[in-house]
Amino acid sequence: MTRILLLNPNTSADITERMMVVARAAAAPGTEVIAATAPRGVPYIATRAEAAIGGAIVLDMLAERLGTFDAAIVAAFGDPGLGGARELMPVPVIGLAEASMLTACMLGRRFSIVSFARALGPWFRECVAAHGLNERLASIRLLDDPFAAVGRVGEDKEDLLVALAGKAVEEDEADVIVLAGAPLAGLAARVRDRVPVPVVEGVAAAIRQAELLVSLDPRKAVAGTYRRPDAKSSIGLPVPLERLLAHAGA
Fold first, then answer.
1. For the residues 93-99, what does the mean pLDDT come to?
2. For 42-55, what is the HEC assignment?
3. pLDDT band for position 77 (50/70/90)?
4. How confident is the model at residue 23 (pLDDT cuts 50, 70, 90)?
5. 231 Cβ partners below 8 Å, 6+ apart?
6. How far is residue 21 CA from its own chain's centroid?
7. What SS3 state is found at 63?
8. Rounded to 10 degrees, what is the CA torsion of 118, 121, 123, 126?
9. Which of 82, 131, 222, 231 would disulfide-bridge 95, Cβ 3.0–4.6 Å?
């Protein structure tokens, strides 16, 4: 049994369940997907500040569950806390954005990111750059309309998001569309026949890549940028994270 932790650093449990529907459908037989929703923070991460908060929560949640999963997915599109998680964790950690974009790169020359809120733009651009994919990015297209509930934004804004995807293909020469953001989980399957290029479902891509990495059984780095940091004491952190930083029991 392969155990994959789907970790939502947002506090919206309905978004976690939305992603879990996609994750269960994508998972291979013999894979168990375990859901976890942030116990504190914001309903959905949309800015750099919120991403910094979410990244710290990601590390807390991973440390608390250490030993219960074979791979973890940071299930927010900007991948908050991903680098730190890869330093600390002895198992693969996959970012929702990175999995989506790398999958898109295998389907076409350039991809466009389409999402539901203008505030996401700066964070998403920095995420693309952090993953070294600026040259593969055709555009980022974002809605600028208010929405009633983030958990239903995919349904409520479906036609507008499809129209944005069409503009990305026609005007920006995108070969692939990445529908970005955990609240849009499941939308790719619904609109795939309305968009003239491949549409990436990020949750499914992350699950499949997590399964692949577990099957490859990579060793934990002891050199390079993702080696485990040297043991260090700390003050005031949650006990599991404190122990992880101190290499307690390691």
1. 97
2. CCCCCCHHHHHHHH
3. very high
4. very high
5. 245, 246, 247
6. 15
7. helix
8. 180
9. 82
Question: DSSP assignment, residue 221?
Answer: P
Residue that is written with structure tokens 């989506």 in the block = 100
Question: Residue 18: beta bridge partners?
Answer: none
| Secondary structure class of 114 (helix, strand, coil) | strand
Asked if 57 and 40 count as a contact pair (C-beta separation under 8 A), the reply is yes
3-state SS, residue 197: coil
Task: Count CB atoms within 10 A of the CB of residue 158.
Answer: 15
> Residue 138 — pLDDT band, cuts 50, 70, 90?
very high
CATH of domain 98-201: 3.40.50.12500
**For 196-226, how does the pLDDT look when each residue is reduced to its tens digit (9 = 90+)?**
999 999 999 999 999 999 999 999 999 999 9
8 Å CB contact between 17 and 35: yes
Q: Are 8 and 36 in contact (CB under 8 A)?
A: yes
State residue 119's pLDDT score.
86
Dist. CA 97–CA 166, nearest whole Å: 21
Residue 72, classed as helix, strand or coil, is strand
Residues 6+ apart with CB under 8 A from 124: 77, 78, 97, 113, 115, 140, 180
* Residue range 2-95+205-245 in CATH 3.40.50.12500: yes
CA angle 103, 138, 9 (to 5 degrees): 55
* Identical fold, 2-95+205-245 and 98-201: yes
